[in-house]
Specification:
alpha/beta, about 10% strand, about 375 residues, 10 strands, eight-stranded parallel barrel
Length: about 375
């Protein structure tokens, strides 16, 4: 039998050892490039893609939408089909549009002391989170709610617990929940910046922040109109919330005077806050998008009324101009408006019908009151005669 050749042991080279490649660092989205982001609330009627196209045609580089109808309870059926969500995300990437802000349903009351309403609100807000994740949203804005008979402390505790419950079993990914300040109407929570700050403190383990509405601030008594008042308000925001926790600002003028405690939005520069104040706000380094004072990616989003065709486009243009960035603004499509003449006519017919219906109800109520008054009068007369 022939001898087997002796095989020398292979030398181990440390360079040959397998080393898994480290996961690449996640890159910030394209819209977080330090530029000013200005948008408006656009309609999803017909398709989610329509909201993106409207924002583009209006000269925006950011947008806010509802993920479903904001005035009815949706139930679990209001899911977004994968094909629709993927098409929306792809088109948004093409447009480099961002951030994407979603505003939660108006019926949600996370502060409610009524168990049934609180439970329904928690489920509805959970569904909002699921839809926001499907669309690849960056922020989900929600009103804190109304406290009813509860104390402010009890209401804030209820809000914190409600948000925690709603976010359970909902992978948040890059989504951040933003608590919006309120105008202070009725028993609404969040008119004081300290109340918003307390809610955020209770949710410190979740990705949360604040969305500040200029009209709400003004109506709640914060004088952002004057230079001294704005400086004071900025100091209060910093103390209660921290400006680094305010990535979205709802830019709305107010029909209501300072401290009026009613939520009524007006066209930019046409209300009680005024164009000069908005120029001061939009150009203030603390509200900017450039460090170290500003916050990269911060967006100004208009929720202004559309009383006539073109109001939406004019409000967006006003924000760019007052920010001193008219030349850098994306090109708006001439003549475009979300309120078309046909839609305006439809809305007018609906309002007239509603007004007529309300007048009929009022007439019936007055008739019933008069009838009841006559009956009481007749009863008194009979009593007098018997006496």
């Amino acid at each position: 039998m022939p001898e087997q050749p002796i095989i020398l042991p292979t030398q181990f080279d440390p360079e040959d050892e397998y080393r898994p490649e480290p996961e690449p660092e996640p890159q910030p989205p394209s819209w977080m490039d330090g530029s000013v982001r200005i948008g408006i609330h656009t309609s999803i009627a017909g398709s989610y893609l329509n909201a993106l196209e409207s924002a583009r045609k209006l000269g925006c580089n950011a947008l806010q939408i509802f993920s479903a109808s904001p005035r009815i309870w949706q139930g679990g059926s209001a899911r977004i089909a994968d094909v629709d969500a993927q098409a929306f995300r792809a088109r948004r990437d093409e447009l480099r549009m961002g951030p994407l802000v979603i505003h939660a349903n108006y019926l949600i009351n996370l502060a409610s002391g009524q168990r049934m309403l609180q439970t329904r609100s928690i489920q509805a807000f959970h569904d909002e989170i699921v839809r926001a994740m499907a669309l690849g949203a960056d922020f989900l804005v929600v009103h804190p709610g109304a406290r009813g008979e509860s104390t402010m402390g009890q209401a804030i505790s209820t809000i914190v617990e409600s948000v925690k419950q709603a976010s359970k079993r909902a992978p948040m990914g890059g989504l951040r929940i933003l608590i919006e300040n309120t105008a202070g109407m009725g028993t609404a929570v969040g008119a004081r910046l300290e109340e918003v700050g307390e809610i955020l403190a209770g949710l410190r383990n979740l990705p949360v922040g604040a969305c500040l509405d200029t009209a709400h601030l003004f109506a709640a008594g914060y004088d952002i109109k004057s230079e001294a008042g704005l400086a004071s308000t900025i100091g209060q925001i910093e103390g209660a919330i921290g400006l680094e926790n305010v990535p979205v600002i709802h830019a709305n003028d107010s029909k209501i005077p300072l401290g009026g405690r009613v939520d009524r939005h007006e066209h930019i520069g046409k209300g009680k806050i005024g164009a000069e104040a908005f120029a001061r706000i939009l150009r203030h380094p603390r509200f900017g998008t450039v460090g170290p004072e500003g916050l990269t990616g911060r967006a100004f989003v208009a929720e202004t009324p559309i009383d006539g065709p073109g109001d939406d486009r004019r409000n967006v243009a006003a924000l760019w101009e007052l920010a001193g960035l008219k030349e850098q603004a994306p090109q708006a499509e001439k003549g475009f408006s979300m309120l078309t003449p046909a839609l305006q006519k439809k809305i007018s017919i609906h309002r007239k019908a509603e007004k007529k219906r309300n007048a009929g109800v009022e007439k019936l109520q007055n008739s019933e009151k008069k009838s009841a008054t006559r009956k009481r009068g007749a009863k008194k007369t009979r009593k007098k005669k018997r006496g």
